[in-house]
Amino acid sequence: MKYFFLIGLFSVVLFFSFLGGTSVFQVAEARNAECAREMMENNELIVPTFNGELRTDKPALEYYGMMAGYYLFGVNERGARFFSALCGLLVVLATFWIARRHWGEKAAWWSALTLLASMHVIVQFRLATPDPYLILFHTLSIYFFYEGWLSRQWKWYVMMYVALGLGIFAKGPVGLLLPGFTFLLFMLFTKTLTWKRLMELKPWWGIFIVLLVAAPWYYAVAVKTGGAWTKAFFLEHNLNRFDAGLEGHRGSFLLPFLFLLAGLLPFSAFIFRALKGVWTQRKTNPLLLLAGLSALVVAVFYALSQTKLINYTSPAYPFLSLAIGYFVAGLPADRESLRKSRIETYAMVVLSLMLPVGVYFFVANTAPLQRVGWISWFLLLLPLGAISALVVRKASVNKSLTAIALAFMATTLIIFWKPLQVIDDQSPIQKYRALVHVHPEVVAYKDFDHGFAFYAQRRIPVFQTEQELEDYLTVHTDVLVLTRARDLTYMSAVPNLSCIGIDHDLFSRHSTGIYHQCPTHSE
């Protein structure tokens, strides 16, 4: 119980601390958070809208989570992100649970610690996006499948089907396709793909349960939008993204595999040895085999997809953490462990030493972050952890790896406490959100940072031509005009506007401009 308590404590601190500390400057967060706010404001449980227009990107489960967060904490960043963080907590605890149930407490400890030491895992579950919900139900569906396959008890399959339905409700077809391919491969490898074993799953009851969970909302939104939402979601946001790809998000077949290596640092250093263990024990350790296949299905699926984003491969994290945790827990408590972990430990140490330097040069050369190189000092726990790891390595490999894990977890917490908030303070959203919120007339020209819609808490009309904007300004006074582009020189052609400010968007090539009607226009 000691290890379970520690993992629970670490998870709560990492996922929930400073949850509302930064604005929703990330595009997906901004759109999702505002969509949920509009649905709540309009007492609308079926049709998602953003800025008053139909939003077809994702199903409604994440919006329901955000609306629940708004009821608990108010319409703010914490409310939008709370249930994402809860998904992270549940994923870590579920991974600890299944590893402990079949491999013991030591493997459970290292599997959960692998997840918590990953900065990307923590970030992923602190965003107001659908991915945390998908990862949770994808993970649970596979864990429940394994328990059902092993025990041959129907109760586990019932929970599996419920999780599959919620996965579909979270992000669409991938909520069924990824686990489904995994189940099929696992049963093939274990030679249990027989009619008798398939009938134990009671697939007709399973289809009924999945449809009972997922279908009502899909049916309702199709009816209420005349099929417009359904057509756009399945064709544009699923089929086209897989087959054609989003501009700017294409890449090599190998890119998803690199995403997994980068996303699960620092313990992904052990990934190759862990996967070797999956292969050598494929006939004797079915849970380890399932973990390897689960990660492989996710990686290959998105390697074949034309759209490649690092968050797409994140459903593989819990399963890779199981494989890594099992390997680390199996290191012998003698000098042999030094040899078996030498390369990986030194790689983690080098990474810990290089990250502060890399962050320094990144923030020092990224507009608009020229004067915040001092942020890299907040990462000094990483090299301190690396030095500690080297000092205690000969005495105990476990203590050495624990030092690195704790250093990464503490650094992640520190980043959310101060550096990320300092960076966020330089974003146009943070600088002008209060002005946009209180100003009586706010419009946009061509494009705008969608975070402003969340902070305005009302629809922002968008004009695409100069004549449309001028016509509006002719009959309205005291108007705030937002725009966003790489080059804002076109705004000089719009008469009777004074520039309040132009600021570079964070981690983007675009800039946001804030303009105001000149007083002479209304005279």
UniProtKB/TrEMBL annotation:
Ranges for domain Glycosyltransferase RgtA/B/C/D-like: 57-219
Compartment(s): Cell membrane
Pfam families hit by this protein: PMT_2
Bilayer-spanning residue ranges: 82-100, 107-127, 133-149, 176-194, 201-219, 253-275, 287-304, 316-333, 345-362, 374-392, 401-420
GO molecular function per UniProt: pentosyltransferase activity
Domain of life: Bacteria
An annotated GO BP: response to iron(III) ion
Protein's UniProt name: 4-amino-4-deoxy-L-arabinose transferase-like glycosyltransferase
